[in-house]
Design brief:
alpha+beta, five-stranded antiparallel β-sheet, 25 strands, disordered N terminus
């Protein structure tokens, strides 16, 4: 038998594909109809507190969790079908790839439910997902993760190259992105050619590329009026032939014009590659000018680049000075100064920061220039530190939606109208309320059986209702 990691029985469910405005209360109202809940948590961004689109629902019983998975999977919450699966705390099960299959060329009408119903016949499914775009439309591919490899192999054998809906689908074993990239780099056969002369035809391409191997197709992309768009494709039978053609014909001439040759790539792949190059270029630029490029803000409209350069030139040789302007040519109120070495830049910061220039009213802000990513990271760390400082003064309720014992039962309605506590006479001692007599969001548990109000006392500590009543009755008796 193969050494296959199996998920341990758990009463925890992962609920994905949630609308951004779905809250813990909405999920409680839905899932509490199945059975008693332990907790609910909608995962949110640490800074913006916006929903990340998924949540965890924890039941007390595994049986209730199974029933919720069977009955509520693909149930529409706020008009969007949710995707429910068992919560896998062990990442090795997800990352191993065992039992995970990939389906492409899907019919656009096939969603999570149809996919789940089709593949559940081959074994127990841990997760099932159809890839969607930002508009909620299918991208034409999906993933199904089975509990074991035998079920995955059976699904591949029986569904691959078969009709699913109106299209013949491809079903194969899932490959990680790194593995797919390695395989693609050593197996591509399609060559992309651009900068073609408008007079070049498909026959010209065949004549130029046929010396490097057998060609299966050659095409030049054209407009509606049959004029050339200036680029085309040549597909070889073997990868080695395509690679040799690119090496020899790149920057060569066809009809007296230099052409560009390379591996044909999808749009998303090209965009990702360009983003990586741009990111690397930004890092190189930052390292090149690190410690010598200054950022200056609070510049008034009267300050131009000549005046800025004159004010800062006393600290050293300036390589460049720039004030940013809008589309109408007006100053945006900030600019940049680049020195030749870090010592000159530091002297300028020490002397010019908070200085008011003659004829101006606002003090300058001068600091070393930092990329946007670094500024955001520092801002996030500072905001997180401020939040920790605030949290040390006033206790804050846990973000997990805790369901108190006795608040509801599985046989009663999920939201029971609770009686409000009556105002007690001043001289009567106040009793401590229990969890079943008050809504959980208004109180915090200090110790078993004791609840505290959310307002701190003057001494920095919180007092129980009974403690305050005792203190007031004591003062009256004196």
């Amino acid at each position: 038998m193969s050494n296959i990691p199996k998920p341990h029985p758990s009463a925890s469910l992962y609920v994905g594909d949630l609308s951004p405005n779905v809250t813990e209360g909405m999920l409680f109202e839905l899932f509490s109809q199945i059975g008693p809940l332990a907790s609910i948590r909608v995962c949110r961004d640490t800074l913006t507190r916006r929903s990340l689109g998924y949540a965890y629902v924890n039941f007390h019983s595994v049986v209730d969790a199974e029933r919720a998975l069977d009955t509520l999977n693909n149930y529409a919450i706020k008009g969007k079908p949710c995707r429910i699966m068992w919560s896998q705390r062990d990442p090795s099960i997800r990352k191993s790839g065992i039992g995970n299959i990939f389906i492409k060329n899907l019919d656009p009408t096939i969603g999570h439910k149809e996919l789940y119903d089709t593949f559940s016949a081959f074994g127990n499914i841990l997760s099932c997902k159809v890839a969607m775009d930002e508009n909620g439309n299918s991208k034409g591919f999906a993933f199904v993760h089975f509990e074991n490899a035998e079920s995955a192999d059976k699904a591949i054998d029986l569904v691959n190259e078969r009709l699913l809906g109106t299209k013949k689908v491809f079903v194969g074993k899932f490959q990680a992105k790194k593995e797919r990239k390695k395989q693609k780099d050593s197996s591509w056969t399609n060559v992309y050619i651009k900068d073609l002369d408008p007079a070049v035809t498909e026959n010209d391409l065949l004549q130029a590329f046929q010396f490097y191997g057998n060609i299966t197709s050659a095409v030049i992309m054209r407009k509606g009026d049959d004029t050339s768009l200036g680029f085309g494709f040549v597909n070889f039978e073997r990868h080695e032939n395509a690679q040799t053609a690119v090496e020899h014909l790149h920057q060569s001439e066809i009809n007296g014009k230099k052409i560009w040759c390379g591996r044909a790539q999808k749009k998303a792949e090209r965009q990702s590659e360009l983003q990586q190059k741009f990111k690397q270029l930004k890092i190189e630029q930052f390292n090149k000018y690190q410690g010598i490029n200054l950022y200056i803000k609070n510049l008034e409209d009267e300050i131009d680049e000549e005046r800025l350069k004159k004010e800062f030139s006393v600290y050293g040789q300036i390589r460049s000075a720039k004030i940013m302007q809008d589309e109408t040519g007006n100053s945006k109120g900030f600019g940049f100064i680049c020195y030749t070495n870090a010592e000159e830049a530091q002297n300028a910061i020490n002397d010019m920061n908070s200085r008011i220039l003659s004829g101006c009213n606002k003090p300058l802000y001068v600091a070393l220039h930092e990329p946007k990513d670094i500024r955001r990271q520092k801002l996030a760390q500072r905001n997180g530190g401020m939040r920790k400082i605030r949290n040390t003064n006033v206790p804050v309720a846990t973000p997990v939606y805790q369901v108190p014992p006795g608040y509801y039962s599985s046989t009663s309605a999920p939201f029971t109208v609770l009686p409000q506590p009556m105002t007690q006479p001043r001289n009567a001692p106040r009793t401590a309320w229990t969890a079943s007599q008050m809504p959980p969001q208004q109180y915090q548990v200090q110790s078993p059986g004791q609840y505290m109000t959310g307002r701190p006392s003057r001494g920095g500590r919180q007092q129980t209702s009974a403690g305050r009543a005792g203190g007031r009755s004591g003062r009256r008796s004196n």
